[in-house]
Amino acid sequence: MDFVIQPNHSSMSKTITKAQYKLSTRKGELALQAGQANTHKAASGEAYRILKRQEDANEDALAGDVVAQRSGADLQLDYADGTQLTLQDYFTECKTGPGCEVTLAGDSSDGWQLTAAAKDGAGLADGSSLLYAHGSTEALAGMVPSHQGLEQPLAGLKGDLITYIPQDQVGTGWLAGGAGLAGLLALGGSGGGGGESAPPAPSVQNHVQLNFMGGPALSGNDLSIEVYSADGKTLIGKAKLNANGSVTVDVKDYVGVVIVKLINNGGASDYLDEATGLGKDLSAQLYTMGVITEPNSTISLNVNVLTTIAYAKAQEAAGGSSANPVALGSQQVVDTAAAISKVFQVDDVLHTPAMATNGGNYDAANGLSSGEKYGAVLAAFSGAEQMGAHTVQQVLDTVLAGISVHGNTAVITNAAQAVLVEGAKVAVPGASADDPSGGVSPIIDTYAPEFTSGATAAAIAENSGAGQVVYTATASDPSAIRY
Description:
The chain is of the alpha+beta class and 483 residues long. It has helices at 90-93, 137-143, 151-154, 180-186, 305-318, 330-343, 370-388, 392-401, 414-427, 441-444, and strands spanning 21-25, 28-32, 37-41, 47-53, 60-62, 66-71, 74-79, 84-88, 101-104, 112-115, 129-136, 161-164, 206-212, 223-228, 235-240, 246-252, 256-264, 271-272, 279-280, 286-292, 298-303, 403-406, 409-412, 450-451, 475-476. It has two domains: 21-186, no CATH class; 206-444, no CATH class. Strands 1, 2, 4, 5, 9 and 10 form a six-stranded mixed sheet that branches. The N and C termini lie far apart (65 Å).
């Protein structure tokens, strides 16, 4: 994305003081608490201006040293002195109808107009997306510790006042003169007033390790991985999948939510299908997600149909979709993954190592381990594909449609469960008369059988003889039924 820097015509002071703030609307002005978090419900058709009484001045001006970020449907405005304003539901209320706008301090006296159609910029560690920033290099450098990831889009900008605006193309804008934010960070935020510079900060290297499973990956696969920041749009790393289905991607110093997309680059056989025992080309678009919580760390993530369901439901809850993503917060990732894990009785869909049913080590004779449970559920998708002559994507879409998520809990319909129970019967080893699904029925099928027999038994006379049938129970269920 380009960093658009316009000529410096602003008269904003670089002094950070807790002065009086006001929210100006079409209906009047509201006082804001300086240095504290403030909230206001956004309304369609409104125009907002955030004003601040300038030091040694008798009038208000647009408040500078500001970072604007999108957090779900909310617009969050943070100022260098700790003042914060959240316009709740801004991107919902202002997306249709007459719309609305927010005027922020900028490089001209008229400021910068931010609308609900604003482009998402770099992802920050808290899962929000950077939309705009303007202020002195000293002030914005001071906001970096509380806005991890902010240093990345601003580091190349120079000048006493800098402005960040997301654009479509990748590039860097510059203002002449001044140390710039990168220089200030290297000097510990001191401004570089002629003293010796502090020792350079140690380099940060974060990695995301990915483990793909459809069945066991094949050595000739043509799969690759793309890793994006929390917004699902900013590419931060990519790599070719190894022969065993794993790869580690360097995402440099990025900290926060990561979104991973599995790319199928051709028609090669990518994995050994559990239902057919044959090599198969991947026929579904798969995703996963995770959170890097601290520098110099490696997180390990699965990427398969269950992680794809978790990601799709997280996007759905945030108001986006897999095809048109919005920024995800770390709590959304954690809660949705927990909900999907509970539905399929897998310890952790994102992180638990899965054991393929046709990988050589799977053995259901002594009960299913957590990894074997995971592998059995994955195999059920392949079985459902084989039974219905569908693609993996079609089975995935069917199951997705049958799942609803509320926070960290989820519900799956009986029909969606039945698809997988039936699929397990042809793809999961260890079937028996009691459970033809190879042990997967108790994992997936949480619905009681539907009884079609009557609610009462036949009436017979007392002491009329043994061996008389008084009731015949009949019921239907994808799983085996025992009485």
